Amino acid sequence: MNNSVFSNSIRFIVLVLVQVLICNHISFLGFISPYIYILFILLYPLKDENRAVFLLLSFLIGLSVDIFSDSGGIHAAASLCIAYIRPVVLRFSFGSAYEYQTLKIRNTDLGQRAVYIGIVVLTHHLILFSLEIFSFTHLLLILEKTLLSGVFTLLLCLLLIPLFSVKNQ
Amino acid sequence: MQNIINFFLKNRFFFLFFVLLSFSLVLTIQSHNYHSSKFINSANWVSGGIYKAASSVSDYFGLKTYNIQLLEENRKLRTLLFSNQTSQSDTIPPDSLLLQGNSEYVVRTASVIKNSYKSPKNYITIDRGEQDGITQDMGVITSNGIVGIIDNTSAHYATVQSVLNTLTRINAQLKSTNHFGTLQWDGQSEKRLQLVDISRIAPVKEGDTVVTGGMSTIFPKGVPIGVIESYHLDISENYYIINVAMFNDMTNLGHVYVIENTNKEEILELEQSVNEQ
User: Fold this and answer.
1) What tens digit of pLDDT does each residue of B169-202 get?
2) Which residues partner with B211 through β-bridges?
3) Contact in structure between A73 and A63 (CB atoms under 8 Å)
4) Where are the domains of chain B?
5) How many whole angstroms separate alpha carbon B179 and alpha carbon A140?
6) Which CATH class is domain A2-168?
7) ipTM value > 0.85
8) Residue of chain B whose Cα is closest to the Cα of A16
9) Do A21 and B54 touch (CB under 8 A)?
10) Domain B35-88+105-261 classified CATH 2.40.10.340?
């Protein structure tokens, strides 16, 4: 338990710093940037999950990114939403393995993992960009940004997950 | 009663979710209004300190560019100085706001420690704050042109609402004539600003220079902004919408000047007393 608290705190801090110091400066083709701090929410342990703590931590990581990037509360709202819907997405993408609590994300096969991350990333980006642009007249721009940034984030997440699991074993 | 408590206990995660979500939505809506993102901004000692440490490393990579910029600015000032000396005889010295000590404007230097230009609402963080005399609504410029307006301040850091922010409105005018309008940004390109409300009788030409107007207390009159790239009439056909290509490269900001108007309070007081009458 202690070990998991420790490794989660480290992960929290590292992901916020990587996001604000590196990823916020990436703008591929001018406007595509990855939001990899959601790895914290994706990889949060399933077993000793206290849902209230999980929701609070997800909210806090979003808020930290908001403070650094002067963006109001958009990251906080988006990460809170994906934390809330995570159990549903897990059940949808992994089926019975999640029900029996035997699931370990690093042991799943690539297809299921991509579906899980894809749904979470797209939901997160859709909420994020809707709140950032905040106008329905730019609906196409919101969808375009969601899709392109989403693919970029998805690829980065798939590449980074093995990196995180080595540390935990 | 028992049922109500049970209902709350059963749905406690939903209520937690709901409370946190409303909190973040309030912050988001606040950030879409001018000057109200008071609590969540990067001008605090944690994020300011981290950005400062990071920029103290990355600053080294920009040293060459900064030197060239400084050299260019020195050249301009020297030209001003020498051309001033020759025609010194009896004229009043020109409005050299950067040279005089006790002028209407006080100029302070600052370094940019965080810059952004991609989102519709961009903010810049600088490494000077209240302890260096920086307060809200001061103008920020570089030697090339305008950068933004001070938004929030802490003891050692301040955030700047960039001109690349859809909320920013700056009074601007054509350099050749005194026709003035409002400078804003449509959120599209980080190289182009829009100057609106210029009357159609104004002689607008491509390549003309646009400078700040003296109608606000934030910027002094005549700070360069950019050149006219293209223009067209708005729907009412009475006013021009002008695309202005900025002199400043907003993606590459190193050192900036913060301008304080020492007569600001006097002007605002006067204007307020006129409005009350």
Assistant:
1) 999 988 888 888 999 998 888 889 999 888 888 8
2) B173, B224
3) yes
4) 2-26, 35-88+105-261
5) 37
6) mainly alpha
7) no
8) B47
9) yes
10) yes
